[in-house]
Write a structure and sequence with these properties.
By secondary structure, this protein is mainly alpha-helical. It has eight helices and three strands, in the order αααααβββααα. The radius of gyration is 18 Å and the shape is globular. Bound molecules: fe (ii) ion (FE2).
């Protein structure tokens, strides 16, 4: 089956955020659209593999291997960016309700969670996910070095932060910590709370 993706539209509020410029968001969205395009190209090629391609499948080099490895990169990139942009455009502050209760239970306090999330963002090369582990029934801040590392089965991403340089360098240079603070100021907690349901 040929599963193609159409780029999503996000809340207009992401173009007028505090401390994260419209220009940087627009550039970031162009990258996202590029990932969608690459994903669709990979899907089309997977859909038209020949008998010869199937016979030549191998773990050192083969067309099916290359396509499936890059599909992992492209698809996780798309999902991560959709989560990220949907997490933004809010007014920041602190969460409440079920999410707040779970944060308090699993981190001890919102401040503890915030400290750990930010430090994970400083330590990562790509992503931070506050994830709900459906196996262990616990929230945890997971670290990713690229779009498809180090994803863990049974974890539902609830809150997602992009720390690739393209996410902040235009506005902040090397000051990643300031970018993460700006991220917190523009969090859309309502959207994030819905990811926990
Ligand atoms: Fe990104």
């Amino acid at each position: 089956m040929l599963t193609l993706i159409t780029p999503k539209q996000f809340n207009d509020a992401i173009f007028s955020m505090k401390g994260i410029s419209k220009q940087m968001v627009e550039n970031h969205l162009k990258l996202y659209e590029g990932y969608v395009k690459s994903h669709n190209t990979i899907r089309e090629q997977l859909n038209s593999l020949s008998e010869d391609d199937y016979e030549k499948a191998g773990a050192t080099y083969s067309k099916i291997r290359e396509l499936k490895v890059e599909l992992s990169f492209a698809l996780t990139s798309i999902v991560n960016h959709e989560l990220y942009f949907n997490n933004l455009g809010g007014k920041g502050g602190e969460p409440n309700g079920k999410l707040r209760d779970q944060i308090d239970r699993d981190f001890g306090s919102f401040e503890n969670f915030r400290q750990d999330f930010k430090a994970t963002g400083m330590a990562a090369r790509g992503w931070v996910w506050l994830g709900w582990n459906t196996r262990d029934k616990v929230l945890f801040n997971y670290l990713g070095d690229s779009h498809n590392t180090y994803l863990i089965w049974n974890v539902v991403p609830v809150m997602t932060l992009d720390v690739y340089e393209h996410a902040y360098y235009m506005d902040y240079g090397v000051r990643r910590a300031d970018y993460i603070e700006a991220y917190f100021q523009n969090i859309n907690w309502k959207s994030i709370q819905n990811n926990l349901l």
